[in-house]
Amino acid sequence: MNNNTISIIGRVLLATIFVFSGIGKIMAPAATIGYIASSGLPFATLGFAIAVAVELGGGLALAFGFQTRIVAAILAAFSIVTALAFHNNLADQNQLINLLKNFAMAGGLLQIVAFYGNKAKA
């Protein structure tokens, strides 16, 4: 398998969690808005709209190789911010795992920002 194919597979795998999460939010907007509000963040409806745009739009853009480095940087920042905002109860093992998962995704996305070249486009 060549590097181009591996790069495409890696982008699609990273993008999958964002696309599924964005679709999940669209399917249950009231629950998502309620969850955002319950965390104490202001403007829950705006947060919902931003989350859907970043997750679904960014996930699809990453999967298809559109503005890959910029999109990966946005998704990495989003992953870190959401980890800190929503998974900050480190005494809860599930929250800790989700925090670390978000950090790991950000790490993978930052690898795309640092090393993605024009040769690995779909």
From TrEMBL:
Pfam families: DoxX (PF07681). InterPro entries: DoxX, DoxX-like_oxidoreductase. Belongs to the DoxX family. One of its GO terms (cellular component) is plasma membrane. It is found in: Cell membrane. It is a multi-pass membrane protein. The chain crosses the membrane at residues 12-37, 43-63, 70-87, 99-117. This is DoxX family membrane protein. Keywords: Cell membrane, Membrane, Transmembrane, Transmembrane helix.
